[in-house]
Known about the structure:
Elements: H1 10-29, H2 36-46, H3 49-55, E1 67-70, E2 75-79, E3 82-86, E4 96-100, E5 103-109, H4 111-121, H5 135-154, H6 164-174, H7 182-191, H8 194-212, H9 216-234, H10 239-267, H11 269-277, H12 288-304, H13 318-329
Parallel strand pairs: 1-5
Antiparallel strand pairs: 1-2, 2-3, 4-5
Amino acid sequence: MKKGTGKISIQKVIAVVMGAALLAGWIFTADRGIGSQEKKIYREAAEQQGLVDKMGFSGFRLEDYPVAMYDGKADYVFYQGKIEKRSPVLETFAGTAYPVGDHYEVIVPTLERFDGLLSLAGGVEGMVSGSGYGREEQIATIWHEGLHAWQMSHFQILGENLTPAEMEKELEQSGNENGDSEETLLVKELDQNAEQKKRMKKEMQLLKTAAEKKDIDGMKAAILEYREQQEKRQENMSAEALMAEKRCELTEGTAYYVEGNVLKALRGENVYRERYLDTLDVFEGGRGKFYRTGMAKCLILDRLEPDWKTGLDFTESLDELLYKAVESTL
C-alpha cells in the first residue's frame, strides 16, 4: 500500500483494529485447512472498503457477499466473520462471481492453486510478461468479482434481471458450442471480420487518446471522432452482438475500473499505468477488449461528470452516459 503523508486518520485506525479483531475471529473459527496467506488476503481486501467507497458506487460493500477460496479440493468461504469449509461449487482457474443457492458469491482459486495451474499452462499473457500475479492482484480480483456480485444482486443490467437460479442455468448453457454465446457472437462479428476489426482498433486508440487528454476540449474532440467511427462499425452488427457489447462494457468495464484502482492503491502508480492505462487500446479477442473500452469510458466520465456513479442503476449503457456528459458540456 502506498504510504501517506504521515498522518493516520481515526477511520484508518478503526479499520485496522476491526480488521485485526475479525482476523482473530476467523483464525479461531476457521477450518485448519486454509492457510494464513488466504486469511491475510481477505483481511486486506476488506480494508480497501474505504478506498472503494470513495469511487462512488453507492451501497457496494464487499462484506455483503461470501468470498470462497478454492484450493483444488474444497472451498473456504469467508463471510460474516467466519470461515466455513464446503465441497467446491465451481472448479475455477480464475476469479468469478457465481450464483450459489439464492445469492451470488465471489469465488477465486487460492494463490497456491493459481500458481500451480499457471505453471502447468505455461503462464498467462499479462501475468508473465507483466509484473506478476500475487497477493495484491488477488485482492484486486476479489473486488472486481465483488462488483459483479453487487451488480447482479441489485440491478437489471440493461433491462435484464436474472435470478441466481436463472443465471446459473445461463452460465451452464453458455459453455455449449451452440454458436450464440456472447463470446462467439463477438468473435464472429468483430474478430473475424477484417474491416470491423480495423474500425474497432481505431475506436480503442481514440478512447485511449480521450482518456489521456489533459484539456477537456481535446478530450471531447476525440470522443466525437470515436462516436463517428463507432456508428460506422455498429451499423454492420446484429442486435444480439450489439447488446453483448454494451452489457460487457457496462459490467466488465466498471469492474475492471474498480480492480485497477484497488491495485493502484496496493502497488502504486507505475504498475497501474503499465497494466491498465498503457493497454487501453490493446485489442483482445472476444469480450476482453470491452473491459478496456469500458474502463476508458469510466475514466473519461470521471473527468466530464465526476458524480456519474451517483444513482448508477445499470439501465443505461456507458455510451449513453458518456454522450450525455459530452453534450451537457458543449
